[in-house]
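Batch queue: ligand-bound targets. Current item pairs a single chain with manganese (II) ion. No template structures supplied; prediction is de novo from sequence plus SMILES. Inputs echoed for audit trail.
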Amino acid sequence: MTKKIKLLHTSDWHLGARLLNKDREEEQLFFLNELVELIKTNNINLLIIAGDIFDTGVPSNSARKMYYLFLTQLIGTCCEHIVITGGNHDSPSMLEAPKEVLELLNIYVIGAAETNENGEINFDHEIIKLHGINKDLHAVIAAVPFLRDRDIMKSVAGQSFEDRIAAMRQGLRNHYQHLAELLSEYKEIPIIATGHLFAQKSVLPGNDARQEGENDIHIGNLAQVDMSEFYSTFSYMALGHIHKAQKPGGFENIRYSGSPLCMSFSEFKDEKTITVVEFENENFISATDITLSKPRQIVRFKGNEEILKNEIENYSNPNTLTAWAEIIFTEPFTQMSLDALNSTAKEKNIEILKYTLEEQKKIQTDESEKYSGKTLQELTPEDLLEMKCIEEGYTEEQIKEIKQSFQLLTDLMHHVGT
Ligand SMILES: [Mn+2]
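Prediction returned. Tokens below.
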């Protein structure tokens, strides 16, 4: 008899996240409600959330409430199993605090890798067996959370940067391979792996050189993992971390679901999706991206004063929620023209959250190109500071001041050291 299972894969909710200090709770709630509906209408049996549930390790009470309310809404529905793994934004201990209670409801949370006193990974901690009501096995999950450097490699003194990257890559690969071996005894049920990582050949949202919101300089971000060898090992790999939905390497059964909301203006053109995956026995059958509705429009207008005025006047906001806009002036502008645009925008239910002069943007890209392709090892702390300043959109004058303060502070620190 063929056994069918339907999985819904999503990630990177970043509950509690703001966009330029604007609250996004209404949008997050809207998504969670839509998700409950999608789970019910698509007859989903298993939900996987592949990391970055919350935006910070200490999410607000209302963000936590949203999350628990969502989980409550799924109890007693077709969605028998829920698997939640920690991302780099999540606090593993916060996520795992209610672990035992949630397990009684068939909700499994893996916040982080577990290691013993010798630093060896407890792989059993990441293996989840999903049983049906009749105790029959529905699927097994290699629920791999975001892996921190220390989880997968031992620091060796004197190791070069390249060696560390290579060790990280090897460590990640070994981690998955080890889990695959442990799960190979299971037949005729899907073996599904999760991951919160940067897979080789993946594309960042808006094709930006760097991904806003994921700009933490973590060695794991540099050690891009080649997933291609796992396409035949696992029935499916549910990935998170990159906000753009895609199939890195082109394999149908290795996917990023992408984030449900645009997390920055660079993502404004991207469709936001969740992924529905069907299995028959151990076999992957199909994966379909379902486009989510956007409760709020995130838009970007570009041009000179006249073009911008026109574009804003002709824009029709399909939502009741005010659209949030970034405007990019292609020519110098005055405070008066900005004020005029602001009031035109207001009439059209748009709020301008950010404005820049393209010249500045261009200078910024030129400047960032100076560093592109360089590894962390080749950059000085001053270079990194400058990159961060450029990314934050500071003016040349401001950057100069920040650099001076930085210099002063590092000098002071060196004096303390001696
Ligand atoms: Mn992430």
